[in-house]
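Field reference: sequence -> structure
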Amino acid sequence: MTGGRTADLLLRVNGEALRCPAGLCLDAVLVVLGYQPRLVVVEFNGEILPRDRWPDQPVVESDVLEVVTIVGGGS
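Structure field:
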């Protein structure tokens, strides 16, 4: 580790390998990856994870996330 940074971990997000800081829970990982948590649904390692569990769900190396963005609108 250099410059005081924490270690990164490798995740698979929507089929793509991405790095993010280690030691974060799911809600924080979503923000780091550029998502607005209130506008997404997350499948975490094959399970749709209820939003109220995100702050307590640790994310570790090799976890698999499918993130679906909710799009509003209509006519």
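Note: The mean pLDDT is 90.
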